[in-house]
Write a structure and sequence with these properties.
The protein is α+β, with helices and mostly antiparallel strands and 322 residues long. 15% of the residues lie in helices and 21% in strands. The chain has seven helices and 13 strands. Strands 1, 4, 5, 8, 9, 10, 12 and 13 form an eight-stranded mixed beta sheet that branches. It has a five-stranded mixed beta sheet with strand order 3-2-11-6-7. The longest helix has 17 residues. The chain binds ligand MTE and molybdenum atom. The site of the ligand Nc1nc2c(c(=O)[nH]1)N[C@H]1C(S)=C(S)[C@@H](COP(=O)(O)O)O[C@H]1N2 has 16 residues, from loops.
Amino acid sequence: MHVRIKPGWELAESAATPESVYLNRRTLIKGVAATSILGALPSGCARAEDEEDDDPTADLYPAQPNSQYTVERAITDADVTSRYNNFYEFGSHKKISAAAQALRRRPWTVEIDGMVETPMTVDIDNLIRRMPLEERVYRHRCVEAWSMVIPWSGFPLRTFVEFARPTAGAKYLRMETFHDAEIAPGQRQFWYPWPYVEGLTMAEATNELAFLVTGAYRKPMAKQYGSPLRLAVPWKYGFKHIKSIVKFTFTDERPVSFWEQLAPPEYGFWANVNPDVPHPRWSQATERDIGTDQRIPTRLFNGYGEYVADIYAGIEGERLYM
Ligand SMILES: Nc1nc2c(c(=O)[nH]1)N[C@H]1C(S)=C(S)[C@@H](COP(=O)(O)O)O[C@H]1N2
Ligand SMILES: [Mo]
């Protein structure tokens, strides 16, 4: 079967917000008014951010900044990054922030299975409280050639891997997003291979840069960023940064990710950033910073080569950059 599905990232950025998003926003505002705590909010503005104060882990923020991970570029304003998102579960365009407020962050459990000593299901609050929370400022480079800089909070994926105790045979870590078409209208679009899946090799998962994100801008992250748990692997294209994770599976089989399943010649397993390897339909030489609207040169491994280049020594024959 050869179905060629056009990702939304080929659409004009100015694509109109579909009606369903407005309807959702209205429902949301009604919900807020009914509880009347936030009655003073400007009308017509769904203040997603205010809700983060109710997060059961809100007391853990701000987390201690880790000064090793800072960048030379300006941090992109939260007003920009919280309104320009890829989260296909809530629509195949950038203006999903209102629709994403339908996401229910609690109760939330994370399943750990496959090649581990003991498969288990952990409650997100228990998990977050036993992990060492810190803040890291990372660049983020989407395969669509836009980028941003975000102060994430979270913990090293390596610490999570140690907690999960994979067995010696595990070669890959497969991650999966929630699957609930009741709250995520995008998941009613049957031509996509839901749920969203991503994967890393164990060497990548245990690299010091790989980070499990719980917060952004010094508080629990807003839903549209992929709360309550999302991946950041800043040397790879944005689609590897799987959102709202419910399951981690350790395996000896290379996982096939969501985008790889849809369009294997365009979105491979490795997806490391490289300005010299164009996407089949566009150049990756430069990127648009969504905060400043400037075009800037793209860097090999998104500027993180000193941390990760070693991982790929000896496997140069693989499609490392797509
Ligand atoms: N579950 C899920 N995770 C996802 C996506 C998605 O559609 N669904 N989009 C990816 C893409 S293409 C990018 S660029 C980033 C966007 O993250 P942001 O909205 O926080 O900028 O999330 C990634 N993670
Ligand atoms: Mo992306």
